[in-house]
Design brief:
The protein is an alpha+beta fold. It is built from two helices and eight strands; from the N terminus they run αββββββββα.
């Protein structure tokens, strides 16, 4: 007599795995987009710096804040260069000054909890020269989530075939 209780978790587990896989695909798509596929905005810098008085200081030195005249949100730009950081490919934010005209390439994030911020800056150009190019965080994250989804999916299917889950 089999005394082990089997729980009906296969469908829920598979739904979770599919969600992880889809999330990975969405992140990967953003990671491989060309810069001209993002929102593009040209404007003059109103503020650029390491801190912004209305916002809490986040990991001193790892972020820059940028505001332009024709966009209501403040761009929060990650510039960390420590081991383990998903550092940008190019970062010259500190060379920008108030009044400079720049071209920004970014995504909008409707799920951002602080509606004053945009953390999805991808590129910044000034006079046709790049001053910021995002790192490979989205691309690597997408691959990690897709791989995790495949591994977990295989594991859930194995458990189903072995009779461990129903």
């Amino acid at each position: 007599m089999n005394t082990k209780r089997q729980y009906p978790v296969f469908a829920k587990s598979l739904a979770g795995v599919v969600t992880i896989f889809i999330l990975g695909c969405i992140i990967l798509i953003r990671g491989v987009k060309d810069k001209h596929e993002f929102h593009q905005l040209t404007g003059k810098i109103v503020f650029v710096g390491r801190t912004f008085e209305e916002l809490p200081l986040r990991h001193a030195g790892k972020y820059r804040y940028l505001s332009i005249d024709n966009y209501p949100k403040i761009f929060t730009i990650f510039v960390g260069k420590d081991f383990g950081d998903f550092k940008p490919h190019l970062e010259r934010i500190d060379d920008l000054k108030v009044g400079d005209e720049i071209v920004l390439y970014f995504d909008e994030d409707e799920k951002e909890t602080d509606k004053r911020l945009n953390r999805l800056i991808q590129y910044i150009d000034k006079n046709g020269k790049p001053y910021f190019m995002r790192g490979s965080k989205d691309k690597n994250g997408g691959y990690i989530f897709i791989g995790l989804g495949i591994i977990l999916g295989g594991w859930v299917i194995y458990l189903k075939k072995a009779g461990k889950v129903v």
